């Protein structure tokens, strides 16, 4: 109450001791609480002192006004999902999230209110007799005017009994005690609104629970599109009895989706969180599934019986990217593909899941993007063995923004324990699929259905498997040997060539005559050179590329060096006459343009020898939004480059024109390829030198390279000349305007 009113607890105590009409405290669960409606009525006549007014409050405002404002601000601001606007069920949900929610919740947490709703929906859908008792209690409360606290206790006891009868963990008594309902009539109205809500409403309530409570990665729920995709891909084949396991059950959404695809499927779930097990139990009961749910440790692979139980399917979204505070020695354990790093569980989960499969079993696992391309020595070794031994069937790359509480993009790994595995791996790129819905991105049923169809066609051996994708996705089947040569990368972009679209150049229009002298003449010269370019159609070759052309990985053509670490660069001493340090902002129009750069002391710069630039080096941005590039000219030889850049230097043994390479790296398709590689980080996008080296460069003969490079260099010269002309014109205009307005000059 003191937090809502914006006063100290001692103030509340003073009000209660000095004023005999101040509402009396009520006891619940061994603690005393003030009844919010009674306190609001008392505070209506108590104005806030002028010196204590907060922003937005006017003189004469009361403490009751302040409390109501705070409660309104705590209400979620986002509109409910589409369901809340459609039909009778939608109208009920709208009421459940309106002012009624504040009256029932009071000062209690939002999660407790949503647990209350989920519990009521579960009871009315799974136990008719218990729901009949609930209805009688509500009717009795209306007639006898029972207190809200007593009614809430009775409802909690009924819910916990139903949960126990279903073999689930009870938790309603503890959760309901956190609510502060104003009146029993409000509780009765919530019960009536929850009656008849179907499965769509349960999913909606589960989504809202996550949005309101903002859980961490170990607790948030898996979006319906993701679990539907996992379940459809996993349970597409087979009949008869089967067992499905989720070692980190969250809200039970994965097991519920799997059970809905395969009748008679028995499900087993584990979690270190009692709350997650309670929610999962209610979810599965609501869907008519009797689960076997158990509490376990956060590291189930440490259990002595970890190899005892085997399952036909595993479907799970384990917590990932979590660093252990204390490194764990994993060398003494039995890991099928090798001990994972001491501080990360990213490669402990898939190994534990794979070892939980029966022979021929399959698993669908949510994994972080980084795990598919990690350069960590241990993680790469594990990934390589999993690929080599056929444990990885396919990897699906999903778009960012699917999860409401985190922007991190994820992948779905389909694992198999079959001894009859294919020699290739299916890699599906769905990163551009889905549509924006507020802050989230959502996959439509047609989109995830297209991914499932693509996977099914690939498994059946159909050549046109990639044609099943809808919404801009792509797919590629890659041999294990090719993956091994690409450093065991499971990113489909490593095996997809950039698509280059050719179009006729726009007409070149000379800049009008003006009085800017040398700058104008340079622009005119650049226009004449560009206008003299002749573009013709090339005679058709015998293959996909013109005769004599080829595609070569960038790493085979160039030495690629990423910038020094930020800490090392920052610690180096500076000097006014030292070596200039080129940063992202100096890359302009594919040239290096520096003005007053930071300079490193010459003696210190010698220790950064491998970061010194030579003429014809190419610089590109590697962190943040990728894009700018520049060719280093002779005037910048000996400069250094900073942490956010990568230097590309052509090998002396290959025929490669630097201006042609700059043109290829500047292509929109190439930039899109680089952007996809960089979009695997969890915070700031970044691309390393090894990954950049996978880029396939289209390589004509040297003479053709030089002609292409010279033509595009002429266009670059024209762009730079006109930009300089525009800037010179802007400066001239500013000077002219000043002199015309001030009086020294006149027009005409």
From TrEMBL:
One GO MF term: DNA binding
DNA methylase adenine-specific domain span: 201-498
Entry similarity comment: Belongs to the type-I restriction system S methylase family.
E.C. number(s) listed in UniProt: 2.1.1.72
Enzyme class: transferase
Gene Ontology terms: biological process: DNA restriction-modification system; methylation
Keyword S-adenosyl-L-methionine among UniProt keywords: yes
Catalytic activity: a 2'-deoxyadenosine in DNA + S-adenosyl-L-methionine = an N(6)-methyl-2'-deoxyadenosine in DNA + S-adenosyl-L-homocysteine + H(+)
Entries under Gene3D superfamilies matching the protein: DNA methylase specificity domains, Vaccinia Virus protein VP39
Superkingdom to which the source organism belongs: Bacteria
Record's protein name: site-specific DNA-methyltransferase (adenine-specific)
Keywords: DNA-binding, Methyltransferase, Restriction system, S-adenosyl-L-methionine, Transferase
Record-annotated Type I restriction modification DNA specificity domain positions: 546-723
CDD domains: RMtype1_S_TRD-CR_like
Keyword Methyltransferase: yes
Source organism of the structure: Actinomadura verrucosospora
